[in-house]
Amino acid sequence: MTSKSRLMDLQPCRVISHGRMDAVTTETEFSREKPASVIAEPRPDGFWSWLTPAAVAAIVLAATLGVWDHVRTQEMDTARARFDRYAGNVAAAISERLTGYEQLLRGADGLFQSSKDVDRIAWRDYVQSLRIDDNFPRLQALGFARHLTASGLASHIEATRAEGFPDYAVWPRGDRTEFAVVDYLEPFSGRNLRAFGYDMLAEPALRAALERARDNGDSSLSNRPILVRGDAGRRHAGFQLFLPVYRDSLPTRTISQRRIALQGYVFGAFSMDELVRGTALEQANDILLKAPNT
What we know:
The chain is α+β, with helices and mostly antiparallel strands. It contains 8 helices and 6 strands; from the N terminus they run ααααβαβαβββαβα.
């Protein structure tokens, strides 16, 4: 065999070997690259390298505080809504109570309009029939203040003393042209006895309410509280609601006519402290601060 023939016989093998070498080389490179991409570990300076356990704890704490603040805000909003509803209920109940007092005074005015003369006994019997303690528990007194001029003051004092009150006097003393003297008062006991003979026109706050009722022909509430001393010696804010009583036989169309026809005032006395406190307690079961899910 010649050298040329041997060379030709070897060439295909060399080609095949070259192709196999390329394939082997490619596979070897792929096998080296693929495992490297799969098992590669994060570089120490990567995005999550800062996330230490302390940082994780801080994130969890911040999230917890955020949830807690959200829940607390919802609970506070719920409590605030309950309180607003409660305050509205208290205000409505007080307004309703005052309306009831006004209706009570109109009934008392009807007593004077239907009778020629209402004396002390008739007033006592009328008030007792109303059962104030049961039906108007916050009302301290229901009374009648007689309107007097200076010329009729002495005869009024004399007539009252003749009824069995020898020490009766109109107070406070002073030179005044007209008076609104507490004449009838029920219950006629305890601290109410201190108001017997009191001229309410001597107190500016009461005088304003009395004159307003007289001229308007309607009920009037004293604008400022009068500090009175209770049974235990504690001073509290007292209010009075007045309704004018006119003589039935006289006209009352104008202010001047109403002033001439004025016979006196029926009035209700109550402690605003006790009224608000008692009404608030009655409405208190609507403001129990419980968790929303209880």
